[in-house]
Amino acid sequence: xxxxxxxxxxxxxxxxxxxxxxxxxxxxxxxxxxxxxxxxxxxxxxxxxxxxxxxxxxxxxxxxxxxxxxxxxxxxxxxxxxxxxxxxxxxxxxxxxxxxxxxxxxxxxxxxxxxxxxxxxxxxxxxxxxxxxxxxxxxxxxxxxxxxxxxxxxxxxxxxxxxxxxxxxxxxxxxxxxxxxxxxxxxxxxxxxxxxxxxxxxxxxx
Length: 206
Hints:
By secondary structure, the protein is an all-alpha fold. It has helices spanning about 5-25, 30-35, 55-75, 85-100, 105-115, 120-145, 155-175, 185-200. It folds into two domains: about 1-50, Arc Repressor Mutant, subunit A; about 60-200, Tetracycline Repressor, domain 2. It is built from eight helices and no strands.
């Protein structure tokens, strides 16, 4: 097996394990299930050529998700500043929605089995949730400096900003539709307006 093929199989196993853990729970998923979902012969030994246990494939999947998200966040933040607050907010909101979509299975695993794996749960909190909030604090602080306007409780503001995006997407996952039928375009527009007003201390008259 070539390194490229081995890497591809390893990635498939991680994605498949995360999906099954999210759907069935960690205890309800067997190694054979993961192999079958990944396109390997169930109970054929393919899993153990890459991971010694279900715990290890879960840990590897968590690390992979964290790394992917950190690279994406760095790429987006690397585009800033754009010189226009609304443009930056729009970019950030669209990226957040996409990043949350990519992390859907991981969030579901944490919700189902986080108590069983507290160290992995804490890694997700620190590197995904806390990191997003801290980036929002830095974002608002930078604009507060540019506008020469003190940032009022930036941590609480970050919790509102990030929480609104996550809750919008989570409601879609849970109930099959967005709150009150608000589509993504409307949500992003209103989120940008709200954050703009919050950060500038103005009231949107539009």
